[in-house]
């Protein structure tokens, strides 16, 4: 959230964070692996690992605490406080540590009376909590949707807007990551946040959803959590066109490196999150993550697609796709000399050949094709354009080939 009000006079204004919602945010979050079992040793070692592994250098700058940092009661002034056993040094000291490493720190709260683990939510305390986070020099807030039944009559829109306003008045630039689970279709109203979750929680599984999970973005809240990677991608068929700089649809934290997917599945997962302009927030344990998963998360060309200047997501191309077998997505790129990206996923066939007629790629300038170089990103293979079709040989089951068209 950008600070819009100039604070003048004798008020001490804490130094501002560096929100850049023009690009999907990148970082790490504790939830997928650690749930509420977090403490300051873990957060510090994760921050250090982000630097030591090269992830920070690759762009993953937020160190985000999810649920579990809080005490069960507010202090005598009504301020939220950390769990003193697990965070004995307090949040300001932790923020100082993270900032000292050249990173930024995120925290979690909730728009209801309670959060999902029955810690105090921010309902009715929005101003006070935003001021507290600013005083701790927090840079990022993930704001959840539990406890809303107890919050009674206020609509989710109003509850989330109240915190957005409070952050704006906090005197610090704090990234506002809204987590309303897609329940009330936030792509239609949440543009006051910097990003908004499009669904219930992701599951560490490539294709197997938990029971009752619905497949489209608009079906109602049956099967809240347990959305597999393939289903999350499916939901984006309806949402890719809503993606825009400063208001990113969030496909939830990455499951790359959490141990349930093979190489091709992890590459597919990361490729789609990047090309669909979802935030890239690592959910794995960065202290123990495998080199293979690290290499996926640090692929410079895929990250460049995510952070591309145009901020336009790829769209699903039904005419080039066959349900349950092959899906093809494409869209423009602006950065450098790149101009277009195609994702071709085999999700139902034995190793196959995928032929994509270039005429079927909307927005590709075909009059210039002779001047394009085509680069298959994961294979690092370059070829020059040679006809009316893009022919991708040997696409294995669950593999995605990502091809970037660049003008020479
Ligand atoms: C909700 C959110 C998750 C996580 C948990 C914490 O389920 O969607 O991402 O923050 O709450 O309790």
Automatic annotation (TrEMBL):
Residues that span the membrane, as ranges: none
Keyword ATP-binding: no
UniProt keyword Disulfide bond present: yes
Protein name: Alpha-galactosidase
Family: Belongs to the glycosyl hydrolase 27 family.
PANTHER family: ALPHA-GALACTOSIDASE, ALPHA-GALACTOSIDASE/ALPHA-N-ACETYLGALACTOSAMINIDASE
Reaction catalysed by this enzyme: Hydrolysis of terminal, non-reducing alpha-D-galactose residues in alpha-D-galactosides, including galactose oligosaccharides, galactomannans and galactolipids
Record lineage: Eukaryota, Fungi, Dikarya, Ascomycota, Pezizomycotina
GO biological process, one term: carbohydrate metabolic process
